[in-house]
Amino acid sequence: MPMWSQIIFRSLGALVVLFIMARLLGKKQISQLTFFEYILGITLGELAGFISTDMEAHYSHGLIALAVWFAVPFTLEYISMKSIRLRHLLEGRGRVVIKEGKVMEDNLKKGASDVGRADGTTARQKRL
User: Fold this and answer.
1) Is 117:98 a contact under the CB 8 Å cutoff?
2) Same domain, 80 and 104
3) How many separate domains does the chain show?
4) Do both 86 and 102 map to the same domain?
5) Which of 11, 21, 42, 44 falls between 20 and 30 A from 27, CA-CA?
């Protein structure tokens, strides 16, 4: 089989696996992704690219790597839905930024944000 046809089949297989993994991990907007989920997406994409083009590596080894990179975050997400302690450890705790119409500047500083950002968010919400 010619090299280009192997690359096509390997790429299609990797895309199908990535699509299934993405569906299982759930749909989120880019702004809702945690830093870890963002890095995970990049890593899964890189692994799929390597699986597609690295003809010397076994295809099954690449699929195993994809499965591990999928299974660990999937399992942690499932467990964190059940355990509040683990959720706070992995995702952190939320901060009250606006309380009774007043901007809580101390909480903004802790979250590395500024008042202009909070005002812009509230102005957008008022328009909706």
Assistant:
1) no
2) no
3) 2
4) no
5) 11
Sequential pLDDT tens for the chain (128 residues): 788 888 888 889 988 988 888 888 776 766 677 777 888 888 888 998 888 888 888 888 988 998 998 898 889 888 888 888 888 887 777 666 677 777 777 766 665 554 455 455 544 555 55
- Give this prediction's pTM: 0.60
d(CA 91, CA 32) in angstroms, rounded, equals: 12
DSSP state of 14: H
Q: Which range of residues forms the domain containing residue 37?
A: 3-91
Amino acid at position 36, single letter: F
Q: What are the angstrom distances between the C-alpha of 92 and each of 17, 40, 88?
A: 30, 18, 4
